[in-house]
Amino acid sequence: MSESSKSSKSSNLNPSPTLQCKDLHEYLKSRSAQFLETLYNYPTICLAVYRELPELARHFVIRLLFVEQPVPQAVVASWVTQTHAKEQSKACEALSELFVWQEAPIPGGLPGWMLSQSFKKNLKVALLGGGRPWSMSSSLEPDGKARDVAFLDAYALERWECVLHYMVGSAQTEGISADAVRILLHAGLMTRDAEDGSAVITRAGFQFLLLSTAKQVWLFLQHYLHTAEKRSLSAAECLAFLYQLSFSTLGKSVRAALRGGISAQQIIRYLDQHSHPQMLKSDTGGVRSASVLPPTVLDQIQLWESERNRFTYTEGVVYNQFLSQAEFAVLRDYAKGAGVLTWHSERARTMVVTRASHDDVKRFWKRYSKAS
Questions:
Q1: How many Cβ atoms sit within 10 Å of the Cβ of residue 263?
Q2: Which of 16, 123, 213, 301 could form a disulfide bond with 46, CB atoms 3.0-4.6 angstroms apart?
Q3: Is residue 342 classed as helix, strand or coil in its secondary structure?
């Protein structure tokens, strides 16, 4: 067998490693407990981590959020039936990997769980408010030259395409910053040519081009954080800033229009008719689109409309202050049988009936009170 055939077979037996793109959970799992403790001082990060947790893990966090002492692990395990033991194991593993909770001893030697103090404190701020403002939108003054979301989305996509064009070496009028080149080299997506020292794409770089835009940007940001630490910058502060931007309030004018009775489709048509000229010139790759707006903008406007349509508002009358549970049950059952019961709480002995049925329910209650 010739040496060339041997080397060929050897390369087939040892294929190049696949480019690994960690999600937020995997990235944070690879960091130290000290780094995560610093990171959990930012409400934005706590909210982002909470959203990334498995559904059952989020359930555990909410149940423990206002508990100030360790909860026995056996009690936490009892919250889930044996049929979902696998999901429970994954939830506990995720919470431990991210140091969202830690084992804490209970008097008597029983093992317990307790949420990280910094995570618990700042998740409360993110969910309930209070403390210092954690989003920048509340402290910023109106910008006289503000850009709309559609323009910013198009600009970000244009700049990202410049990075991708640079990687493949295509001729382009605009270059990218030296910092961006440094990150591409650090990530192994590009390397310096041995002859002229120019940056050329690597095998990992070609794999990178096949990823979705969201994964590309996230992988790029991960390596940016690595280079930031080498420059004595705080990776925790950089990551918190990125999530602070993503949680900043936007769409106030859209929400106001929806409250005024304007539909999402009417808003989209208006934005199409008044789009920036650059949006009208954007290349759609030969695919005809019903709107010049980016799909993310369309989805967000429709999502805001859907959020409002989740609720149905009806007028009602509250009945409470029952002297006994039996009295409450009698009136509740009457209203339920008549189909006019809107809501009830047995523990609070409170019920709500439709406004139109109020007189009828009141007459029934008077008859019942006299008879009893």
A1: 13
A2: 123
A3: strand
Compute the chain's Rg from CA coordinates.
29
Beta-carbon count within 10 A of 190 CB? 22
- Residue spans of the domains in the chain: they are 31-133, 149-246, 252-309, 316-371
Using N-to-C axis directions, what is the helix angle for 213-230 and 149-168, rounded to 10°? 80
Reported as a single tens digit per residue, the pLDDT across 167-221 is 888 766 567 888 888 899 988 899 998 888 888 899 999 999 988 888 898 899 8
Q: What is the pTM of this model?
A: 0.59
31-133 CATH fold: Arc Repressor Mutant, subunit A (1.10.10)
Question: What are the tokens at 312?
Answer: 């149905």
Classify domain 316-371 at the CATH class level. Answer: alpha beta
- Closest CA relative to residue 222, chosen from 38, 28, 39, 44: 28
User: What pLDDT score was predicted for residue 260?
Assistant: 80
Hey, what are 87's tokens?
């999901």
Going by the DSSP 8-state scheme, the letter that residue 131 receives in this structure is: S
Neighbours of 271 (CB within 10 A): 20
99 token code pair: 């140091």
**Rounded CA separation 42/29 (Å):** 17
Q: Outline where 65-116 has alpha helix (H).
A: 73-78, 85-97
Give the integer Cα–Cα distance in Å for 198 and 212.
26
**DSSP SS3 for 354:** strand
Q: How many Å apart are CA 235 and CA 216, to the nearest integer?
A: 19
